[in-house]
Amino acid sequence: MASDDFQRAALEHLDALYNFAMYLTRNPPEADDLVQETYLRAFRFSHRFQPGTHLRAWLFQILRNTFLTFYRLRERESALAEDGVPTWDVPMFHDAPEESSGAVEAHTDLERALRRLPEEFRTVLLLAEVEGMALEDVARVLACPVGTVKSRIFRAKERLRGLLGDYKKE
Amino acid sequence: MTTPPYESDETLGARLRAELSRHAAPAHVRAAVARASAPARRPTPWLAPVLAAAATALVLGLVFMPMLPRFVHPTEQLVRSVVAEHTRTLMWGSRHSQVIPAALPWLTQESGIGLRQVFAGDDTLVFLGAEPVYLDDRRGMALYYRDGDGHLLTYVVLPFPGMAILDRWRVPIERGQSRYRPALLRDEGFSTWVWRQGDLACFLVSDMVSAEDAERFKDYFVRVRRATDPVPAQ
């Protein structure tokens, strides 16, 4: 794919990537940085993109990996800073941290519930249900088998139902 | 909005798609990404190899430059030979030093240079001797003097028709009515007066290189130049 064509095609997914970044970071300035970093990396490593594969999934994969590399690392470092012991639970499927200052408020119970989900669950729901991505593409973004994606979607919805039920009782 | 308990996967998926607010990329992010997508001004592909080759050539040039033949003006080349002869004499003495005028016929025969008049020394410069020399494929004559401070002076005459003397080398010297414009060349820590007398090239070498010595060296030049008249031998 020619460089100009690649960049043009990549820019078509800007809004979707920004939306995903907002739900990951819950903070507009951080979402700005995350998206810009994603595109910088995509343009820098465009030669690694295999034409014929899904550019959209590739871009989402870069964004998520960037988020995990920098943003979650930062969260862990700040959590460790207190007493040297991580405050987060099991590394996989840990609950989302409490909202920090500057975070966008959740307007509905559904948004509140989604934010409470661990990143791995939140991501599969956003990609598969909100973005309408095929399970194979979601698997590529998450770098896991399709079966794992199906399992996570199921468990994410279960967790979401539970949270929504809790809100209804409040 | 009410949330029915145990809603189905399909219903929950539809709610996610319908109820979650979507966040469009702000204009400043769009602009920043667009700027990032602009083709970067990369150096032309040939620039790096050309620069590398140029750097290599430069390094090789610096390494081998001392070994490369350098253009040397013929007069400068001859001055080097004269200085080398002076240095040899300074270190090991003359080989066949002869006393003038007794040996003049023999010297003329060996050097191909005749002396119609010769500076044989005075109260400032002591004549040490004379001998034939062979420098740069030229037969000639060398006369040696020593001043009161022990400076050795070597006067050399060689055949060199049309020897070029650059104007920038010349130094004007005036002593009374006499005016000269010999060249002063420096090489290997020695000063050499260079001048022409007909088809002969004349040299007066000494280690007098300081500013103070320069004036004295001018005086020695005038003494030798006035009193010496070399000619090609018939």
Descriptive report:
The complex is a heterodimer of chains A (170) and B (234). Chain A is an all-alpha fold and 170 residues long. Chain A has helices spanning 3-11, 14-25, 28-44, 55-83, 109-116, 119-130, 135-142, 146-169. In chain A, helix 2 (14-25) packs across helix 3 and helix 5 crosses helix 8 (146-169). Chain A is globular and about 55 Å long. Chain B is built from 6 helices and 10 strands. Chain B is an alpha+beta fold and 234 residues long. The longest helix of chain B is centred in the middle third of the chain and has 19 residues, at 74-92. Helix content of chain B is 36%, strand content 27%. The model of chain B has no long low-confidence stretch (mean pLDDT 86). Chain A binds chain B through residues 3-4, 7, 10-11, 14-15, 17-19, 22-23, 28, 31-32, 35-36, 39-40, 43, 107-111, 114, 125, 129-130, 132, 154, 157, 160-161, 164-165, 167-168, and chain B through 1-3, 5-7, 9, 12-13, 15-17, 19-26, 28-30, 32-34, 36-37, 39.
The count of helical stretches of chain A stands at 8
Number of helices of chain B: 6
Share of helix among residues of chain A?
A: over 70%
Most extensive interface: A-B, 38 and 29 residues
Q: Are there runs of chain B of 5+ residues with pLDDT below 50, and where? A: none
Strand segment tally of chain A: 0
Range of strand content of chain B: 25-35%
Anisotropy-based shape of chain B: rod-shaped
Q: What would the average pLDDT of chain B be, to the nearest integer? A: 86
What is the arithmetic mean of pLDDT of chain A? 79
For the biggest β-sheet of chain B, the strand order reads 2-3-4-9-8-7
Q: How far apart are the first and last residues' alpha carbons of chain B, in Å? A: 131 Å
Shape descriptor of chain A reads globular
Q: What oligomeric state do the depicted chains represent?
A: heterodimer
- The CA-CA distance between the termini of chain A, in Å, is 54 Å
Number of strands of chain B: 10
- The helix/strand class of chain B is alpha+beta
